[in-house]
Amino acid sequence: MAKVLATLFTAFILSWIFTPWVKKKAFSWGAVDKPAARKVHKSAMPRIGGLAVYMAFVPVVLLSGGLTMPVYGMLLGGTLVMALGVVDDIRGLPARVKLVGQVAAASAVIPFGIKVQYITNPLSGDLFFLGWLAVPVTVFWIVSVINAINLIDGLDGLAGGVSCIAALTLAAVAWTQGHMFNTPGMAGVILLALAFAAAILGFLRHNFHPASIFLGDSGSMFLGFTLAVMSIMSFTKSATAISVIIPLVILGLPLMDTFFAIIRRYYKQQPIFQPDKEHLHHRLMAIGFSHRQAVLVIYGLSVVLGISAVFLNVVSTDQAAVLLIILAVIAIVTANKVGYLGKKKAVVPTENKKNTRSAGM
After folding, report:
1. How far apart are CA 261 and CA 274, in angstroms?
2. For 196, which of 87, 164, 188, 344 is 20 to 30 Å away at the CA?
3. What is the pLDDT of residues 198-229, one digit of tens each?
4. Structural domain includes residue 219
5. Which domain holds residue 82?
6. Torsion over CA of 21, 25, 273 and 283, rounded to 10 degrees?
7. In which band, very low, low, confident or very high, does the pLDDT at 329 lie, cut at 50, 70 and 90?
8. pLDDT at 300
9. Does any domain span residue 360?
10. Domain for residue 59, yes or no?
């Protein structure tokens, strides 16, 4: 236990210390988010904050012991996606180039044994093993989560906080699986998830509203990649039918926001990667929430989904199916309330107009 606590404390402190250094480097490297017509912040902001999380998380993992092939694969792919994000934060990359880079990083983990090997029917509980489809499904999952986290990075502390809650949930679910089923390898997954959450928390001290540094694409893509890979590492160790549904619940908010963004842009005949201001956090602020309140509301929803994911892992398949139906109904009602399923008159308070910043996608 002392070793675990020391690992988490080290990840937190390193992230806390590295963030001011990264902030200074961002200005000298030109990694700044400048004011623009669709953005509201009035001064240039450093936007390469994800590098601090990376610099805290990777050394801690390497020094913690218990390194396995999947862990090496996660670090390799994470390094690739971080390098891609850093270049984008400094020079800017076309959306298609970033997508190709994301696919390459996702593909890099396959030789290390990180694959989604089966999917499940949430109603019957039957497992369907993917065979050769495991590779494209794995790449699709990782790229989807990368862009889902990137998509919600629109308010100070939002993507980091949601990712931290997701990492803590991954650790909690992995603990229940290891505890209940004596599953080998769960201790490593738990430590990885907790160390990742600690590294994010150290950064959030500087990123929560009012932020002094943004995650940037380097951060949001690294967070999404790491969460996606850890979810595969965790839930492929369990043969329970409901286990492959749990990552969808844990990451339900960013995935739902991504789904509605794609549908919205397709319906409006807009490019899929064209930024807009109709994401969940924008809609919350449009109906009267302040910057900080919108972030805290989404934190709260993420916690609810996290708790639900833990329950899904400990109840029977039939009970899990009922809980999934309840969550689906809640999601539909919430989507309707914030205007996803129909037009909602925007009422943006003055404070919101001053503090809102647009999402990265």
Report:
1. 10
2. 87
3. 999 999 988 888 888 999 999 999 999 999 99
4. yes
5. 2-355
6. 50
7. confident
8. 86
9. no
10. yes
